[in-house]
Structure formats: structure tokens, C-alpha cells
Design goal:
Number of helices: 16
Radius of gyration: 21 Å
Protein name: MATE family efflux transporter
GO molecular function: antiporter activity; xenobiotic transmembrane transporter activity
Structural class: mainly alpha
Pfam family, one: MatE
Order of helices and strands: HHHHHHHHHHHHHHHH
Number of domains: 1
Distance between the termini: 37 Å
Shape: globular
Largest sheet: none
Number of strands: 0
Subcellular location: Cell membrane
Strand content: under 5%
Membrane topology: Multi-pass membrane protein
Length: 451
């Protein structure tokens, strides 16, 4: 197969564009079919709002499961990119083999453990007695497809890092199309409700998984999946690099759990369930911003990793500039949408006017800081792509710590609905600190590469 992008010789601006856009679209489509799930669930007759709240409570578990895919995928892909920049294909092949085996082992372990403890987890994550049955139905089926979720997401990173961004996009689109077609069939035609949504998700992930693995086992890529050469040293390096995105996603789960718990505590039984439903919709909208941005930054990590390995600081600086510019442009568009017409998004989940009014208000507040958040994503994920995880995790955790503190302080000082201001506060203060720290770190790093 013809190489889509030559990381060694193509112009940086063109590389960023050609790698970022397909990855961004892939993540956008991925979010879209997640939203389609929730849209159909929210429109189930009589029980839609409660079922939607139940699926929202499952969110942290679903996200935590996917974080293991990023632990291995984003942990191994930058290392593989650096090896490719150093022209060391033998080592790059070993990294891919080890990552594939790691995902197999992790998938089995997560499936067994999560199914065993899912009930106390759901209660801990904020499920009331009313919404627990819906949450339990959904997550029990979803966890059975853990291997498909991890393989499709984790191994797709190794397609992107070899320059096949369009192929990686197709894998996500395949899953999205399957999910969109299967959701109404299982939920409404077969009257399976929440269980139908879970089955549709698992089957769509299985389709993506088959596509990803068939591509990486084929001769279409220069570095394909092989067996053997397993080394603890490689596993350790992958885990060290992947620890940053893993901890970021894991801590996001903690924040969501804390947010749900605080809402239930201060909102009370009736109002708490209503706020949880609104929070689920708000977070769905936020995913339309953060996931495509992570597609931009994740798809272009291979440019930074490759040129870091090749010791080419000028190309690194150019890449950071164009990546940040693209993230900012996208976030500006989404900011305008969030502040002007969020009601059109909310109405696809519910027709209850009380829910609509509260959720529209919440989206406008929750997204006030997304312009600076775009810079945060570009810089933190860029550092991860270069293997500089010590700094990326520090900058990311600082922002999340601010959010964590705010969700406990705000309800004590004001009405519980103002908890939605925790996000913009962290999205402003966090990136400011990141920009200052990044400028110091990169100045030193680029100077070392020149020597």
C-alpha cells in the first residue's frame, strides 16, 4: 500500500493537516455514536430520563475501561514513532508485539474483575435505587465486550503512528455506522431497551476490532503485528509513557464520580436524579469538544515523536504551532455553538422543558473556558508524544486538581447548580500554568536537540 504520509520529508503544515483532520473526524464520529446511544435511550417511552441517568452513571466505568487502551496504545505508539525516526524497525516491531500481548492480558483481567464488582461500583458512582437497574443492565453487557473495546482503540494508535490516518478513521467510522444502525433495531424494534443499546455498542466495537487487527496483521503496513520478543523492559517503558493518558482518564473518572456523588448529596433524591440526567447531557456535549481535540493532538503525536527521535527541533516547533492553531480554531467554533444554540443539542435527548432549560443553562456555563482548554490539550498531549511524560502528567493533574477542589467548595458556598462553574475555572487556571511551564521545558529540550 502507498504510504499516506511521509513523516521524514513531507512539510509539517501538510502533515499536521493530513494526520489531524482524519483523526479529529474519527473521534467526532466516535462521540457521535456514543451520543446516538444516549439519544435513543433518552427517548425510550416513560423511562427515558431515568434510563439516561443510569447510563450516565456507567460513564466512569466505560471510560476507565477505555483508559487501559490508551495506557497501551498511546504508551506504545510514541515509542514506536521515535524508533521509526531513528530508523530502528526491529525495535519498533518488538514494541508492537508487546503492546498487542499486553492488551490481550489486560482485556481478560478487566472483564473478570469489573463484572465481579460492578454492583458496588455503580452504587459508589452515584446510582440511586431508582436508576440502578438501568445502569446494571447496560454495564453487565458492555463489559462482556471489553476485548473489542480495548483492541479497537488501543491498536488503532499503531495504524495512526505509521502514517495511515485515513485508515484509522475508517475503523472508527465502521463502528459508528454499525452502532447507529443497530441501536434502533435492538432498542425499539426488538424492545430490548437499555440492554439493546449495550448490545449494539459491543457489536459495533467488535466490527472495528476485526478491521483494525486485519489491517495490522496484513502486509499493507511496514510494521505489522508479530508474536514473540516479549520483554519486561519494553512493557515497562510502554507503561511509563502510557501512564500519563491513563492517569488523566482515570482521574477524569474520579472527578465524574465525585461530581455525581456531590450532586446526589446536595440535590436530594428527586432533584439529584434530574441533575444527573442534565449532567449526562452536558458531558455528552463536552465530549463533542474534547474528543475531536484529542483526535487532533493524538493523531499528530507521531509527528512530534518521529522528529524528536530524528533530533529535528525546527520541525518540532512548527508542529506545535500548527497543532495548537488547529485546536484553537476548532474550540472557537464549538464555543460559539455552545453559547448560541445548545438547545438544539439538548432536545435530541429529552422533550421535558424543565430538563431542557436547566441543561442549556449548564452547557453555557460549563464551556466558558474551552478556548484555553484547546491550548492545554495541544501542549500536554504533545509532550506525551515526545515521551516527556513527567511534565505532561504534572500539567494535566494541576488542572484536574482545581476542578476537584471546586466541586466540593462551590456547593458549600452557593446553590448546587453552580457546580457547573467548576469546569471553566479549571479550564482557565490550568492552561495558564501549563503555558508558562511548557515554555521553560521546551526551550531547554530544543536546545539539547541542537547539540
Amino acid at each position: 500500500m502507498k504510504i499516506e504520509n511521509n513523516l521524514d520529508t513531507d512539510q509539517i503544515k501538510q502533515l499536521v493537516w493530513r494526520l489531524a483532520i482524519p483523526s479529529m473526524l474519527a473521534q467526532f464520529v466516535s462521540v457521535f455514536y456514543s451520543i446516538v446511544d444516549r439519544m435513543y435511550i433518552g427517548n425510550i417511552a416513560k423511562t427515558g430520563e431515568l434510563a439516561l441517568a443510569g447510563v450516565g452513571v456507567c460513564g466512569p466505568i466505560v471510560t476507565l475501561v477505555s483508559s487501559f487502551a490508551f495506557l497501551v496504545g498511546i504508551g506504545g505508539a510514541p515509542l514506536m514513532s521515535i524508533c521509526m525516526g531513528q530508523k530502528d524497525k526491529k525495535k519498533a516491531k518488538k514494541i508492537l508485539a508487546n503492546c498487542f500481548f499486553m492488551l490481550l492480558v489486560i482485556s481478560f483481567a478487566i472483564t473478570v474483575i469489573a463484572l465481579t464488582i460492578r454492583k458496588p461500583l455503580l452504587m459508589w458512582f452515584g446510582a440511586s435505587k431508582v436508576i440502578f437497574p438501568y445502569a446494571d443492565e447496560y454495564i453487565s453487557i458492555y463489559l462482556c465486550g471489553t476485548i473489542f473495546a480495548l483492541m479497537s482503540v488501543g491498536m488503532n494508535q499503531f495504524i495512526i503512528c505509521q502514517g495511515y490516518a485515513k485508515t484509522a478513521m475508517k475503523t472508527v467510522m465502521l463502528g459508528a455506522i454499525l452502532n447507529i444502525l443497530l441501536d434502533p433495531l435492538f432498542i425499539f424494534v426488538l424492545h430490548m431497551g437499555v440492554r439493546g443499546a449495550a448490545f449494539a455498542t459491543v457489536l459495533s466495537q467488535a466490527g472495528s476490532c476485526i478491521y483494525v487487527l486485519s489491517f495490522l496483521f496484513s502486509n499493507k503496513v511496514s510494521i505489522k503485528i508479530s508474536f514473540g520478543g516479549y520483554q519486561w523492559k519494553i512493557v515497562g517503558r510502554v507503561l511509563m509513557v502510557g501512564l500519563t493518558p491513563f492517569l488523566i482518564i482515570a482521574f477524569d473518572n474520579i472527578l465524574i464520580i465525585a461530581l455525581n456523588t456531590v450532586i446526589q448529596r446536595y440535590g436530594g433524591a428527586g432533584r439529584g436524579d434530574m441533575l444527573l440526567t442534565c449532567t449526562t447531557i452536558v458531558q455528552s456535549f463536552m465530549l463533542l469538544i474534547t474528543m475531536p481535540m484529542s483526535g487532533i493532538t493524538g493523531g499528530t503525536q507521531t509527528i512530534l515523536g518521529y522528529n524528536y527521535g530524528a533530533r529535528r527541533p525546527d520541525r518540532i516547533k512548527k508542529a506545535f504551532f500548527y497543532i495548537t492553531l488547529l485546536c484553537f480554531g476548532f474550540s472557537l467554533i464549538m464555543f460559539v455553538i455552545a453559547q448560541t444554540v445548545p438547545q438544539f443539542f439538548v432536545r435530541i435527548f429529552t422533550e421535558e422543558q424543565e430538563y431542557i432549560d436547566l441543561t442549556v443553562w449548564a452547557i453555557k456555563r460549563y464551556t466558558l473556558g474551552v478556548l484555553l482548554l484547546a491550548i492545554q490539550y495541544a501542549l500536554v498531549d504533545g509532550l506525551t508524544g515526545m515521551g516527556m511524560t513527567k511534565w505532561s502528567i504534572s500539567f494535566s493533574m494541576f488542572r484536574k486538581l482545581i476542578f476537584f477542589v471546586c466541586i466540593f467548595i462551590l456547593p458549600k458556598c452557593t446553590d448546587i447548580v453552580n457546580i457547573f462553574f467548576a469546569e471553566p475555572i479549571s479550564d482557565v487556571l490550568g492552561p495558564i500554568v501549563t503555558m508558562v511551564g511548557f515554555s521553560v521545558v521546551m526551550k531547554k529540550t530544543l536546545a539539547e536537540l541542537k547539540n
